[in-house]
Every structure is written in structure tokens, then in C-alpha cells.
Amino acid sequence: MVVSRNFCIMAVQCWSDILKTSKKTALICDGKRKIHYLFTDGSEMAEEYDMNTDALVSRRLRSKNNLGGQGQWRTEVGETSHNAMPSVDSDTISENSSNPLFARKDTKSSFRWRVRNISYPMDTYNVSVETAERCCIIRTTNKKYYKKFSIPDLDRCQLPLESSALSYTHANNTLIISYKKPKEILALEQELMRELRKLKGTNDGDVDCKTQ
């Protein structure tokens, strides 16, 4: 499916407007800028940024459940405490429950994922973009590991996935997958960071908590 550039720009602006109009609470503590977003539909997002580099450290989201209460937090960026024990419904196939740990940790220019504790040779891996399914898939020729994952940032902005933006390498028992951020995402992130910096003790409900 071909998506027009004008449509993508409108979608990016829509997500930008949602972020701007959300109720935001800022906490500056332990060298991190912690932002809590409350959206008009009752869903929430919590982010942490490194104060020195402005790099995104973690992002978690949760939505209202069917009964109107708050659902469970799900981690989109950063480590999760339960990665070591995949559930029965996990889409990760491994030799034992202590094997591969999948987590996202971005850089300023790329979305990046790491699969730790995976020691197969480089030519074992095949990482591809599936444009029709709007996801990326990790496969191994020995059929010991399989992972399908999306890029929510692109989904929220209705941006297409490009195979040319994807690359991967393997070192120190870790598979590292990178997806170059499109210019629309880079512009959105820069605009958002300018807004977040203004939250430091200036907006209603903001808290500036500096460690002693």
C-alpha cells in the first residue's frame, strides 16, 4: 500500500497535537527527566529521559480496561522485570526459559533493539521488514529463535516501514537491530523535547525534585 507524504505529515501532526494537549506532570530526579502523560481517553504514558543527553531511557503505557479501571503497564522502551520468564503465549521460541532477552533501547538517530544471550553465528540470523504486516521479524536458520515486533512510533504517525532503514549486527552474544528514524520522527522528537524542557517547574502540576 502506498501512503502519500501529505497523509503521513497529517498523521504526525495529529500525534504531536495529542501529546501537546495531554495533561503532563514532570519530575526531575536522579539525573532523569520523568514525564507522565494523561490523555483525554484516560490512557497514560510514562517516559524517562537522560538529563545529560536527552536520550529516551524508558517508555511505558497503559489504557483503561473493559471495566473502566486501569490496565497493566506495558513497556515499549527499556527493560522489563519479567523478561527472563516468557509466558505460555510468548512469540519467542528458545532452547530454555533463561535464553534470549529482547528489549528496546533507542539512540538519537535510530530505533534499536537488543536480543541478549543469543550466541549463534551472524549468518544464522535473518531480520526483515514485513511491510504488509507493519512489523519486523527475526528468524534463525536453526529455528531456535523467532520474534515478531512492531514499531509503535511509526504506527502512531502512520509512517511506512522501509526495508532500507533496517540493519543488524551481532557481537558479545547480542543481536543488535537498528531502524533509522525517518525525518518526520526526528522532527517530532526535537519539537517534543523543546516542550518537555519548558515543563521544568513552570506548568501547573509540575514538580522539580533535585537530589541533594
From TrEMBL:
InterPro entries: DPCD (IPR026224)
UniProt-recorded name of the protein: Protein DPCD
Source taxon at top rank: Eukaryota
Family membership: Belongs to the DPCD family.
Family annotation (Pfam families): DPCD
Species the sequence originates in: Electrophorus electricus
